[in-house]
UniProtKB/TrEMBL annotation:
PROSITE patterns, sorted: PAS
UniProt entry tagged with the keyword Transmembrane: yes
Residue stretches spanning the membrane: 7-24, 30-49, 61-92, 98-122, 134-154
Top-level taxonomic group: Bacteria
GO biological process: regulation of DNA-templated transcription
InterPro entries: PAS, PAS-like_dom_sf, PAS_fold
Record has Methyltransferase as a keyword: no
Naturally occurring in which organism (per UniProt): Candidatus Daviesbacteria bacterium RIFCSPHIGHO2_01_FULL_41_23
Protein name, UniProt field: PAS domain-containing protein
Amino acid sequence: MFSFEILIFLFSSLTICSLIYLRIPQSLLQALAAILLAAVIIVSRIVFLKSKQLHGQLYRYLLLFISALFVQLLVITTGGFLSPFVILLYLFTLGISFLFNLQSSISFLVFSALTLTANIFLNSQMQAIFRDDPWSTILYFISFAIVIPLAQFLTRSYHIKDALSKVLKEYIQISEEREGSILKSLSEFVVVTDKSLNIISTNEAVEKALSLSASEIIHRPFLEILSLKDSAGNPTTADSLSVGDILNDRSARIIKGFYFQTKTDPRPRQIIIHAKPVTDLDGQVSQIVFIISETSFFDDTKRHDNLDPARKRYQMIFKTLGQSLLDAKLRRPAAEAGLLAKIGEDLLLAQEIEDHPIRENIDFPDVVMIGQQAVANKQQFAQAMGVTLKFFLPPEEVSEAAWLNLKSSGLPEKTLPMSDFAVPVDGKWLGMALPRLLDLAILLSGGGSNPVVELTARQENKTTVSVIITTSSPPLSRERQKWLFETNYGNLGKTAFLYLGSGLEGFIAKSILTQLNIPLKIQSEGLSPHLSFVMTFSKLRA
């Protein structure tokens, strides 16, 4: 496919050939090379300082042209094929393959070789040198040809590793955010102590159960704060919790057979204690983390069984990416890496939703902005699935268009008027539900003829706003529609591209919207029926 970079390299090579054809003196060409080097330095500083995307892109292309012109001119003015700087052509080729693509880098190399060849024909001194030793020219062309497979191998390996590193970084970041969110709302007790079992920190569940503040708990003995007893009613001790063994062998323990009760709830509840040591840089235990759960809640063999297919899908893609690092044969590493990150995030989010209810933080976010952001974030996934993803704001929503312009101008939040699409909802959780619905719509539409997914926001009346996600998927019966919001989609798993997703997209979206009290329904409209997801928001606080 033709790219703008190829045009830049062609123009650079034609400029060099014109200078050679016009027989510009060597001293002037060397002075021009020095000027170009100064221009490269100046423009590169502008590129890194530019904030506007359009101007920044123009300066990047200008920098690319000046850099290519400088490298080619430096080689030509110092001997062409015989120049000690000819290696710069190879290095520049490899750099272009990393920053742009292999096709652009090969075009630069080919144009440069043609320019050097033209220099031989247009320069009588160079003709004499190569007439005496024609085989050296052939060897130089061979050296140019060797760079092409080298660039191909390095580029493919680099992009695969870069894609995988981004996935892992994103996955770690998502995990940390989820862990922080889970710790705040977790129904289990999480207590961190030092080696002497003095409490260092706890989660909110402990504070609520004991009706104590953090300041009243911190630095107090663990066994004094929590009333734990064994089956015979005896108070728990450090020995019965195997604290000595944990400190000695630095291994985790799962401790059963204990009961917990509070002043507000004297009923004994059977618990399981998961004690995990935390070591310092010297390998010595410095802290112990106690996770206390009711027995019925901690049964790992019965929790999240519905997520197993998504886990297997995640492991399969991760294995594919790992193998690609060795053989560099993966055709679409970016698409596979993006899918891996999506499934990993869906798994963590589904576990969080199943483990504890959503804690809403009601605000008045603009649903149009949330929708625009969701569409922008899902463009790469849509392209990988071969689906056109669009956002549409009806032309009659003039007030909202003006508000968005004010918002993008950088005015302080306090000076902005209230948006017509501001609704009382938790913007964070709505920002998680909308992308999952888009995922579902993209997967449903994928594989069809000219598949399109469109997100539209409109005002139904003065108090109601609708967000509609329209797909190019044919309608489904009411019974089959319900499967869209089940894990793994029931009997719809092989429909369109649903099998490529995590199997959790609809489940997550429906679960979040239900807890946010946002109605979600499926409908078919138009002469050519298509499937649409409709969310209705009230502007009035319930």
